[in-house]
């Protein structure tokens, strides 16, 4: 299962990149000065936002395959689904903890529907005894 970054976040990077390019072009054609350091700053900011747009559009934020959950675009962290001992939400971050690994998922980066799929996957991965314990104790 591939879960991509929320579309509103992706297109926000596109809009910001185009705004920085428009600022560079307007400053260049205003005739105040020749191509200088401020133009380079605007160009660099526009390129960074457009690269972020492309990367977030094409690469999944979360990849669940072969019993392994991988998270991240630039810095990847992964955990086997069988190794997950506990999962909790703190300060708007879903933390999946195991014996050797810990993965942090930022729910504001993905849609609510995708987040519900992740919760269902985490609930289904537990043994029947643990599921019953969680149901009885409202966990």
Helices and strands in order, then pairings?
Elements: E1 2-3, H1 7-29, H2 37-58, E2 62-65, E3 68-71, E4 77-80, E5 86-90, E6 93-97, E7 102-105, H3 112-124, H4 128-136
Antiparallel strand pairs: 1-2, 2-3, 3-4, 5-6, 6-7
Helix pairs in contact: 1-2
User: Could you spell the SSE succession in H and E letters?
Assistant: EHHEEEEEEHH
Decide which structural class fits the backbone: alpha+beta
Total E-strand runs: 7
Gyration radius, to the nearest Å? 21 Å
Termini, distance in Å? 26 Å
Strand order of the largest sheet: 1-2-3-4
Morphology call: elongated
TL;DR of this structure?
With 139 residues, this protein is α+β, with helices and mostly antiparallel strands. Helix content is 48%, strand content 20%.
Can you walk me through this structure?
The chain has a four-stranded antiparallel β-sheet, with no helix packed on it. A three-stranded antiparallel β-sheet has the order 5-6-7, with no helix packed on it. The protein has two domains: 2-58; 77-136, no CATH class. Helix 1 (7-29) packs antiparallel against helix 2. The model has no long low-confidence stretch (mean pLDDT 84). The protein has four helices and seven strands; from the N terminus they run βααββββββαα. It has helices spanning 7-29, 37-58, 112-124, 128-136; strands at residues 2-3, 62-65, 68-71, 77-80, 86-90, 93-97, 102-105. The two termini are 26 Å apart. It is of the alpha+beta class.
Any key phrases for this structure?
20% strand, alpha+beta, 139 residues
């Amino acid at each position: 299962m591939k879960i991509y970054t929320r579309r509103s976040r992706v297109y926000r990077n596109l809009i910001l990149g185009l705004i920085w390019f428009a600022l560079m072009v307007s400053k260049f054609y205003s005739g105040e000065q020749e191509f200088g350091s401020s133009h380079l700053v605007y160009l660099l900011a526009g390129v960074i936002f457009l690269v972020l747009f492309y990367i977030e559009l094409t690469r999944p934020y979360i990849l669940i395959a072969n019993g392994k959950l991988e998270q991240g675009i630039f810095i990847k962290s992964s955990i086997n689904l069988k190794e997950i001992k506990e999962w909790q939400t703190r300060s708007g971050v879903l933390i999946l903890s195991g014996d050797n690994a810990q993965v942090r998922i930022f729910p504001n980066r993905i849609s609510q529907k995708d987040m519900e799929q992740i919760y269902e996957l985490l609930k289904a991965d537990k043994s029947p005894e643990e599921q019953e314990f969680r149901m009885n104790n409202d966990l």
